[in-house]
Write a structure and sequence with these properties.
With about 150 residues, this protein is an alpha+beta fold. The protein has four helices and four strands, in the order H-H-H-E-E-E-H-E. It has a four-stranded antiparallel sheet, with helices on one face. Helix 1 runs antiparallel to helix 2 (about 45-60).
């Protein structure tokens, strides 16, 4: 029994660490994608959609294992430019030309492995959310409304 509990604890924390790393990588790669010019469109909306899609692809394995979506929001100084699965902006003020990519996953509500009832609150409470934020600065000349 002790071996099982130790093994389960190691496995749980390993998956939490892997999921947090993937969420952070998804936010960073989504922000990098926002920096890239998108063919056929010079609008910020196209860049934001591309950043959102890239972030979703990077964290896709989490959604596949848990059958629960990863939330992504790409936000500018005027609010959300693109989002999925109820993703929200951080609420922190952004300067003109700054874009943030927020990626979050409600790990406590949707763990990657089944939880043991007695250990659930000790290892990962139901309210636990893994999240990451990445920011880029596109310059002051970009219009978020175009």
């Amino acid at each position: 029994m002790v071996f099982f509990l130790v093994f389960y604890g190691i496995l749980t924390y390993s998956l939490v660490a892997a999921a947090q790393n993937s969420v952070a990588l998804a936010a960073q790669d989504g922000a990098r994608k926002v920096l890239q010019w998108q063919p056929g469109s010079s609008s910020l909306a196209a860049r934001a959609s591309a950043g959102r899609d890239t972030a979703l692809r990077r964290a896709e394995w989490i959604s596949e294992i848990s059958a629960s979506p990863v939330a992504v929001a790409v936000c500018g100084s005027s609010g959300a430019l693109s989002s999925s699965a109820g993703g929200t902006c951080s609420g922190l003020p952004l300067a003109a030309g700054q874009i943030e990519v927020m990626v979050s996953y409600a790990y406590g509500a949707h763990p990657l492995i089944p939880s043991v009832p007695l250990l659930r609150t000790a290892l990962m409470p139901a309210s636990s959310v893994l999240s990451a934020r990445a920011m880029v600065h596109l310059g002051d000349s970009l219009d978020e409304g175009s």
